[in-house]
User: Fold this.
Amino acid sequence: MHKIIFDCDNTMGIYGCDVDDGLTLLYLLGRDDVDLIGLTTTYGNNKLENVYNNTRKIFNELSIKDIPLLKGAYDTSNRISEASKFLVDKINEFPNQITILATGSLTNLLGAYELDNAFFDKVKEIVLMGGITETLIINGKVMNELNFSCDAEAVKCVFSSKAKITILNAHICLQAFFGQNELKRLNNSDLKIFEYIKSKTLPWVEFIMKDYGTDGFNNWDIVASVFITHPELFENNFVHINSSVEDLETGMLICDKNKNSNINMPLIIKDVDKFNDLIFEAWSKVSV
Assistant:
């Protein structure tokens, strides 16, 4: 059983904002082998207040009553929040048992460290979605990195810790494209949860098509959640990250391989079809 705290900037349902955090939440809810200890909100895709209120709305729509939902820090000026306190409390309650899945700014994680300097020593694993190793280009158009760049100091602190860290960067997430075949799978089912997903994602499909000219969207954050449940689907790649805070302000990961290569940054999803099958299977188990 994977005990997970999901730290995210969920904007699924807000027009013009990405849907990947919400789809990741649905994946976690549908997994029998995941114990979702709590969801902590952060900023990135949108301001903290919008992220929190939107996630509360989804919790109400899905009748989620048994999973704590905590509000994180608004920005880097004060990283201590109810979310950072929750992270510390739960890590101390379940030392070396909790995986933190973080898919937005890492401000709440640094806030937890500021409260408890042994915080990272008591985490089982930290799985991150974020970062780029070169300019990210989608259909000929540059896309800015919007996770690590939000709080570069927090990212630097996490990387400098002794925690077990895996990064699913933007480039591997390009392999998780949610295109016409996946949209047809939604359309060909009468499950209420698939109708719910369509209602949340189709406006984003239309938006991203106008903005980038693609016929679908990149399912960024869900890649990190599938890594937790099915690491065998990924080709591991251990690196040492030399990025300065200035590098991280653009999300840039400067990597090399040496004896201190301690961060896993997988390069390949080995079987994309199985990857998508796992996602749809988990979604199908979520009640609306």
User: Anything to note?
Assistant: The longest helix spans residues 192-212. The chain has a mean pLDDT of 96. The chain has one domain: 2-283.
